[in-house]
């Protein structure tokens, strides 16, 4: 069994149509976002190597490619740190998008985490005969005893089916592609969705002489980001023993995130952001609403959130629901059977991610040491230098 000697050799073998099956000595992690990086770092602390497969060309691709320019963390930085390495002390209380990306890059560099980019997982399935997971990308098939799903709750944009939207002549864009309100200057913009993204996009649009019309279909829990100079989230965490029917617990029960207001509420009160109950139909030049109004609209922004993509590629597994979320709620959703683990599906943000990553690493670390002890005299499964090896089918 020859050892893997680098990406160039790997590509060379592939182009020669030789075996493209790769044995991974350690867990395969799908996704190089905060969840994947945190788990890889915690595994490294347990002396367990891992291989991250990432479909895009960078770490934290959601943050780098699908977030608007003015985005800041909604929670204070101490609630958004990953295990083993915190934010720099000179970062503000609410780091910007670019500061968070910088933190992720520093984190990966600090722990020498080198994901394999442009490897989109097409299919992952447990081989009961081999006792290994088979993880297929467009280039290779990877084999490992352990598979860690780190693609998270927000892997793909949710694009709702709205009657008439196909005939609308203006621009329709999901917030995943929204960068700045400057391209909508002086337009009449309909924002569909009233979560944190919808609120912040509306606030950003107001800076460019836009009067956004925001569609609100259901009751929205809006909290000030801070009260009396303290983080609202921090206060809620301190009062966690109180009744669990409040807005901080709302996401854990319903999956809906409470809105932490950063200025949009005052713009609504002043009339600069218009609130509309619901869209009945999109027309060629605008929209008809459930209250009978009809308005001309230049552009539509879909602030309709994201969803898990796990059901599209993880096969033969009953651990996930049809919506791609673990059936077992927090804190028990991080471990399934046959070496399958999940991280970043807790509906508790980066705090939940950190908890999952630590638990997974400890669990796999114990297995790793047991296997090594059992095979210490002739131990080929855990090479000291290479994380992956080429094998013939």
TrEMBL record:
Keyword field contains Flavoprotein: yes
Q: Which domain of life is it from?
A: Eukaryota
What does the record give as the reaction this protein catalyses? indole-3-pyruvate + NADPH + O2 + H(+) = (indol-3-yl)acetate + CO2 + NADP(+) + H2O
Which keywords appear in this protein's UniProt record, sorted alphabetically?
Answer: Auxin biosynthesis, FAD, Flavoprotein, Monooxygenase, NADP, Oxidoreductase
Cofactor(s) needed, names only, are: FAD
Q: Which PANTHER family does the annotation name?
A: FLAVIN-BINDING MONOOXYGENASE-LIKE PROTEIN (AFU_ORTHOLOGUE AFUA_4G09220), FLAVIN-CONTAINING MONOOXYGENASE
- Output this protein's name: indole-3-pyruvate monooxygenase
Organism (species): Gossypium hirsutum
């Amino acid at each position: 069994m020859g050892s893997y000697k680098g990406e160039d050799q790997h590509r060379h073998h592939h182009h020669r149509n030789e075996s493209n099956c790769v044995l991974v000595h350690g867990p395969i992690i799908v996704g190089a976002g905060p969840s994947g990086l945190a788990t890889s770092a915690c595994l490294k602390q347990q002396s367990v190597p891992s291989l991250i497969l990432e479909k895009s060309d960078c770490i934290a691709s959601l943050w780098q490619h699908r977030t608007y320019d003015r985005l800041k963390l909604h929670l204070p930085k101490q609630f958004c740190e990953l295990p083993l390495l915190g934010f720099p002390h000179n970062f503000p209380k609410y780091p910007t998008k670019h500061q968070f990306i910088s933190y992720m890059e520093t984190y990966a560099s600090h722990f020498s985490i080198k994901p394999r980019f442009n490897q989109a997982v097409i299919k992952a399935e447990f081989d009961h005969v081999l006792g290994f997971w088979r993880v297929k990308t467009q280039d290779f098939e990877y084999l490992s005893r352990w598979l860690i799903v780190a693609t998270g709750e927000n892997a793909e944009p949710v694009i709702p089916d709205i009657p008439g939207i196909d005939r609308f002549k203006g621009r329709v864009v999901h917030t995943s592609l929204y960068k700045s309100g400057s391209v909508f200057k002086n337009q009449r913009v309909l924002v569909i969705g009233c979560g944190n993204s919808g609120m912040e996009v509306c606030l950003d649009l107001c800076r460019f002489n836009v009067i956004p019309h925001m569609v609100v279909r259901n009751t929205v829990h809006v909290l000030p980001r801070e009260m009396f100079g303290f983080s609202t989230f921090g206060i809620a965490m301190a009062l966690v023993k109180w009744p669990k029917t409040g807005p901080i617990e709302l996401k854990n029960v319903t999956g809906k995130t409470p809105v932490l207001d950063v200025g949009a509420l005052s713009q609504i009160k002043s009339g600069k952001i218009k609130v509309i109950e619901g869209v009945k139909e999109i027309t060629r030049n605008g929209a008809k609403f459930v209250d009978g109004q009809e308005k001309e609209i230049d552009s539509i922004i879909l602030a309709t959130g994201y969803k898990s993509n796990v059901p599209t590629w993880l096969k033969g597994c009953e651990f996930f629901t049809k919506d791609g979320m673990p059936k077992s709620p927090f804190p028990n959703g991080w471990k399934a059977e046959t070496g399958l683990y999940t991280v970043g599906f807790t509906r508790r943000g980066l705090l939940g991610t950190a908890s999952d990553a630590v638990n997974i690493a400890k669990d796999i670390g114990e297995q790793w040491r047991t296997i090594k002890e059992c095979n210490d005299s002739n131990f080929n499964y855990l090479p000291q230098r290479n994380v992956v090896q080429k094998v013939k089918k």
